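Revision sheet: structure tokens.
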Amino acid sequence: MELNTDNPTITNNESSSRFETQINGHTAILTYRRLGKSIVLDHTEVPPALEGRGIASKLAGAALEFARAQHLEVVPLCPYISTYLKKHPEYQNLVGEKNLTRVLNQK
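Predicted:
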């Protein structure tokens, strides 16, 4: 069980198709689906006890680094991931043109 929320250990639980971290008995997750050469980032969930500590950001970064390492195109369905991509242009090249246009034009 992780106690440090500043630098949590993020793992890719492939059998559950999610990136996750466990902190103080709580589990934060980012679910995904692999579709061929794409990874669909579906949903980010951080328990209320862990909110405001940057956990979702760490999950997003881990998922996007995984996509980069595996040469996967990111399909951001999760609103949090879309917002993260707007703030982190270094990951925008992982998103296809159509999806990137959608993300960047969302309010």
